[in-house]
Every structure is written in structure tokens, then in C-alpha cells.
Amino acid sequence: LLGYAVDSWKKNTDLTLSEVTLMGSFFPLLMAGPVVKGEDFSRRVRESDMSWDNAINGCLIFAIGFLKIFFLDDVLDELTTTGINRTEVTGIIITALLSTLRLYVSLSSFADMGRGVARAFGIQVTPSFLPVFFARNPSDFWERWNHTVAGWFREYLVFPSLLKWGRKIPANLIVFIAFLILGLWHGFDIEWVVFGVFNGLMVVLGSMARRSLGEYFGRILVLIMIFGNGYIHIAGDLPDHLGTSGTNIGVGFYLALAAFFFLEWVQERKNER
CB of 239 within 8 A of CB of 85? Predict the structure, then answer.
């Protein structure tokens, strides 16, 4: 809807409101849906191809999303709410990491289900999420985490700002401000302000250090982002006594988690080929 509104205002699309409603109807969670350009989705709708191959592939994509949320989401929600039977420090670290994993599983599973339904009808919808835990640096992280939203901000905010003020304002400052706005776009709350500031700083730091410190430093920054974003999300709700209370993790959870990372690895390998 956001892309449709801007493109309609600029008169860059012939997408109809019914087509916008069609795309929104695929996704059970609005935040999981992709933010795509109007003409891009319009073209995909009009080039749709209902075939057995698309129907089968769509069902498989839907099944992956359904299995992720069915086997992992409830357990991850309980773990990040009640904590884990660990010492205080390790409990905070693990809970923060699981919080990011839970957000990713929840949003990406809904995105997969919506994309699977669209594919079954022959419509190729851009994936909103790619395997974030294989990201090489902070910028790559945001190419994977709801990357259609990040792409929308780049096209409609960052690039125009660079063209207009790039000679007067440092590019990294523009990127930082864009992430601050991205945080406020999620909600007018101190949590989202911190979220925008934190991710903006990490992306700028990763961009500045990429050439001098190499790929390994970028992956370290990604790990810090995964922990930091999870901690920001749960900071106000951490249990007071992580070392004496919490939830034990069962074998089934580890098996589901292993299956999840295997599917992520397969998707990553498929994208690299």
C-alpha cells in the first residue's frame, strides 16, 4: 500500500486498487508482506501463470512457512517470555538471540505462506526474507531481513537524498537518518528509536570498516546485530531471575531448530548458484 500510494502520487503506475487488495490478501500478517513497486506487482499479476508446477512449488513454499511457525514459534515465544534455566549472563545472551530468531521465524513464516499462496495462483511475489544468519556484513543483513522494506527505503528515501544532498551531507549520515526513520516507521516508541539508531550505526560502521577489516569483522558485526536487536526487543520484559526460573529446552526443539537451519542452508545454497 505504501509503494502504491507513492507511485500513484508520482503517476508511475497503472496498478489498480483491486490488484493492491489482491496482494494484501495473500499475507496473514501485514508486516510480513513485501513492499514492492506498483508496476512490478502489476506486471507479475498480469503475467501470472497457473500451472501444475507453480501449484506444487507454491504448496511447498507454504508448507515450509507453516512448519516453521508450527514447530518453532510457540516454543520461541515461551522461551523469550519466561527465560531459560541458565546463569544470569548466559540467560540474557541466549534469550536475546532467541528473541531475534523468534521474530525472524514469525515474520518469515507468514511471508513464506503468503508467497506460497501467490505462487499457487501463478504470481511470483518477491521474497521478503532471505537467510539472515548467513549475512556477511550489516548491509547484507538488511538485504535479507525484510529486504523489500529496506529496498523501498533505499529507492524512495536514500537514493533521492544522496542525489539532492550528497555533496553537502555525508552519505553515511544520510544512511543513518534513513534507519532512524525506518525505526520510527515501525512505531513511535523509544524501543524503535533505539532500534533505528543501533542498526544505522552498525550499517555505517560496517560500511566504513569493510575494506580495512575484511569479511570476518563484518560477520562479527552481524552477530552483534542479531544479539542487539533481540535485546532491544526484550529489554523491558527480561525475567528478574533468569538463573533460578525459566523453561527447559526439550529435544524436539533442538530437532526443529536443526531442521530450520538446514532449510535456511539449502535456501542459501540455492541463491548462490
Answer: no
272 SS3 class:
helix
pLDDT score recorded for residue 141:
92
pLDDT at 211 exceeding the cut of 60: yes
Q: Is the pLDDT of residue 19 over 60?
A: yes
Measure the CA–CA gap between 191 and 231, rounded to whole angstroms.
Answer: 10
Any idea what DSSP says for residue 145?
Answer: T
Q: Using the Cα atoms of residue 180, residue 183, residue 187 and residue 189 in order, give the sign of their dihedral.
A: negative
Is 229 within 8 Å of 100 (Cβ atoms)? yes
pLDDT score at 241? 47
What pLDDT score does 223 carry? 92
pLDDT digits (tens, 9 = 90+) for 148-183: 777 777 777 777 777 777 677 787 888 888 888 888
Which region, left, alpha or beta, applies to residue 122 given φ > 0 means left and ψ of -120 to 50 means alpha?
left
Task: Render 53-106 in DSSP notation, one character per residue.
Answer: HHHHHHHHHHHHHHHHIIIIIHHHHHHHHH-BSS-HHHHHHHHHHHHHHHHHHH
CA distance 15 to 40: 9
| CA gap 233, 221 in Å, rounded | 18
For 194-221, b/e burial (b = at least 16 CB within 10 A) is bbbebbbebbbbbbeebeeeeeeebeeb
Confidence grade of residue 21 (pLDDT, cut at 50, 70, 90): low
Put residue 49 in one of left, alpha, beta given phi > 0 → left and psi -120 to 50 → alpha.
beta
Task: Yes or no: say if 80 and 105 are a contact pair by the CB < 8 Å rule.
Answer: no
Handedness of CA 133, 138, 144, 146 (dihedral sign): positive
Residue showing cell 513511535: 188
Nearest to 104 by CA among 208, 211, 229, 212: 229
